[in-house]
Amino acid sequence: MTTINEALRHFDLPRLEARLLLACVSGLSHSAMVSAGPEPLPDAQWQAYAALAARRLAGEPVAYLLGEREFYGRVFHVSPAVLIPRPETEHLVEAALDKVGRKQAARVVDLGTGSGAIAVTLALEAPAWQVAAVDLSAAALAVAGDNAARLGARVQFHHGSWLSPLPADSRFDLIVSNPPYIDANDHHLDEGDVRFEPQMALTDGHDGLDCLREIAATAPGFLLPSGWLMVEHGYDQGAACRALFAAAGLQQVLTLPDLAGHDRITIGQQP
What we know:
The protein is α/β, with parallel strands linked by helices.
């Protein structure tokens, strides 16, 4: 029989990934794997682990294999129906909490919610906020709804495109979005994890700015006075987003960098 130590070394995987996959099928913690390393791994667990390892070696994201990914200190369920939450998006959450304030009442909507990571996090970090979320994908909304229920977040979900499913008289203190923004010709779409993620959550099929254009043009009509619009975008789209926000009449427009120093979040305020 294969021991736990042998299983961890058997496949050409990074050590951390091997531990995560083995933990998924065995229920063993890292410390338990270390102490029980010389012990045999039950055959059923070895077979399950080998199957996951093969899928990972074929390129499938670890988050999809495990069915979860951590975001802002919480574990979110994910599936191939949703984009995998990324650390860069936590900057969008931080900007929202900073500009609107955690303790004051506010009406908030997350456009293109996917797994619900942004909406659920905002609802939990700022309990006084009324948070809504929209997505075009019914499968994504099912994942987001599950995350909200499991984590105890009060979020109202809407099925449709951007702001269209919301009542025309809806007004918000904050509109946030991490929309598809990758250029359809960007080589990154053919590399790494994104090959397995839903293309409609990654690219608009054109220059990567179509969704940002629509959000910038329509969001001001749904913002309260002094309300904020905040979007995540590509590292090279800061100037374009600032121009779109300014053309829409927003003020206090600026772009915030991520930890790597790249343009990542553009915000603007309704007069």
